[in-house]
């Protein structure tokens, strides 16, 4: 498993390289910490440690089951004076069972409540797959919310689906989040063609391929390090959770 992580010490989002979103002109930090599969009992500490290491972008989702703990970590860091809310970029996601227009706003409000935030910076559709509605009190451990100045994101859309979306969309997506590949870049190519920012997420399985291992050896790098370098230029690299305090600083020289 790819463990981790890219960060630089900083006291504000402006200290880290950012991407400008087309519709809103917001500055999104290029490197974020993903909270998928992070145990609840360690999530708050992991968030605080990440902020100390330099992270300002946190990738959350209601499906991850730890948004309340993420919020606890963010509040602790803010209370300790490590960062302000305005210096953070928080992403969350709409789960598949809440795609119906009447369920979108309650789902967002639930995530905001769990996170203890008044707003999130990016609200993604987790997957382009609508499932049968399950009530919030069961599923969750009056129309689409539309802000013309806010970024419109999508997740895991194949190029054909992205073309279908753009054929009828009045508000083109600003962000496409998809799993990366150090060699193949179909999602990235599609996002650039349509002027949407590409956010990469794990897994990067290619570092285990023999030719990639050989290439990394030629640069005197670990395969994971070379994969991280290859990914940085293509948007954003999220954590494949598993290592935290030790791993957070592992790629500092690579980012520099």
UniProtKB/TrEMBL annotation:
SUPFAM superfamilies for this protein: NAD(P)-linked oxidoreductase
Site positions (Lowers pKa of active site Tyr): 93
Any Pfam family: Aldo_ket_red
UniProt xrefs under PANTHER family: ALDO/KETO REDUCTASE
Molecular function as annotated in GO: oxidoreductase activity
Coiled-coil residue spans: none
UniProt organism field: Emiliania huxleyi (strain CCMP1516)
Keyword check for Signal: yes
Cleaved signal peptide residues: 1-15
Binding residue positions for substrate: 126
Domain NADP-dependent oxidoreductase residues, every copy: 32-128
Keywords: Signal
Name of the protein in its database record: NADP-dependent oxidoreductase domain-containing protein
Catalytic residues of the enzyme: 64 (proton donor)
């Amino acid at each position: 498993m790819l463990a981790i992580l890219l960060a630089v010490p900083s006291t504000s989002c402006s200290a880290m390289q950012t991407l400008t979103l087309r519709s809103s002109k917001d500055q999104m930090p290029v490197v974020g910490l993903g909270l998928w599969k992070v145990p609840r009992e360690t999530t708050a500490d992991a968030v605080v440690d990440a902020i100390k290491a330099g992270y300002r972008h946190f990738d959350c989702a209601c499906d991850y089951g730890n948004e309340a703990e993420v919020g606890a970590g963010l509040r602790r860091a803010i209370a300790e004076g490590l960062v302000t809310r305005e210096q953070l970029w928080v992403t969350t996601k709409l789960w598949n069972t809440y795609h119906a227009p009447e369920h979108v706003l309650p789902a967002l409000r639930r995530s905001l409540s769990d996170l203890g935030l008044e707003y999130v910076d990016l609200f993604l559709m987790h997957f382009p797959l609508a499932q049968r509605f399950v009530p919030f009190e069961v599923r969750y451990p009056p129309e689409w919310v539309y802000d013309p100045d806010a970024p419109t994101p999508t997740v895991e859309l194949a190029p054909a689906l992205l073309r279908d979306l753009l054929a009828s969309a009045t508000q083109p997506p600003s962000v496409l989040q998809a799993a990366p590949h150090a060699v193949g870049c179909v999602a990235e190519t599609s996002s650039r063609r349509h002027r949407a920012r590409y956010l990469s997420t794990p897994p990067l399985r290619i570092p285990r391929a023999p030719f990639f291992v050989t290439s990394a050896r030629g640069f005197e790098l670990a395969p994971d390090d070379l994969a991280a370098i290859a990914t940085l230029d293509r948007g954003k690299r999220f954590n494949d959770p598993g290592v935290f305090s030790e791993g957070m600083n592992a790629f500092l020289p690579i980012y520099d």
